[in-house]
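Late entry, evening session. Most of the bench is empty. Finally got around to the prediction I had been postponing all week. Sequence below, unchanged from the version circulated by S.P.
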Amino acid sequence: MLKRFPGVSGTLDRAMDLLVVPGFSKIGYEARRRMYGWGTPDLTGRSVMVTGASGGLGLAASIDMAKCGAKVHMVCRNPEKGEQARAKVNVEGGVAGTETEPVLHLCDLSLVSEIRRFAADFLASGDPLDVLLNNAGVMPSERQHTKEGLELTFATNLVGPYLLTELLLPRLREGKDPRVIMMSSGGMYSSGFNTSDPQLERKEYKPTTFYAHTKRGEVMLADEWQANEPAGGVTFCSMHPGWAVTPGMSAALPGFHKVTGPILRDSHQGVDTAVWLAGATPEEAPGGEFYEDRQPRTKQRVPGTRIAEGDGRKLMDLLAGITRS
């Protein structure tokens, strides 16, 4: 945490964070890596599940966690892309033919029925689970709904991780230093959360607005879970990857990518904090925090986006009602 690094390093770190561009870009990543002398996390013996693992940040996290010794369970929607990603993790993670070869699971995380089916199968398998990285996310160019009637961004980015986490908690609680990581976004700083209209049905559809709204919700979920988890249980936290270039980001925000391209982080720099969190103890990385570059960061930057007391509980209750079987 920042309090461990007083003096010049801590001051420079905070300044980069406040100025946004240096803090969120690869400039901040490289500066912090050198200032703090980051080591490589040891994930030997850890069983990690990564959602949205077929590309972008999810694939990078799967590769890097495998390199660090983890057994990675890759949750993907598309069978062909998922198998290609699994093969890439085998090669780049250096785990082909070993006990830590990644396992591919197929699940559409926008659908409640699919998540229930997948979670039941995973629990029945008896496989251990120490870490769940809720990374899957979408930002469609136009308003879409799932076949279950939910707005797609809301369903994938909030309903999916909520339900999957709830269903897998019994297995996680059997793990060693178990942790749930919500891959949020720096975009969440621009948004509060509307508990009276959680799917923003009364608003004109704007991809970045809807995306930021759900990413704020992910931070709220992590905080609410942590507040209610018994001592010694699962550690819940959220994080953002900085400005990391991925195929999804390039397609959704071509203008932003064109302007900031030279200073964007690559996907492996974007997931460094997730890999570190996967191996950190609760003392090293406490729950209820929002991390970037291995440090807890403020959750509020923009006036009018503060979350009212009790809104986390309201969101949790809303999602429980939506997913109730």
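Two things to note before I forget:
Residues 43-323 form a domain with the Rossmann fold fold (CATH 3.40.50.720).
The two ends are 41 Å apart (CA to CA).
Will write this up properly tomorrow.
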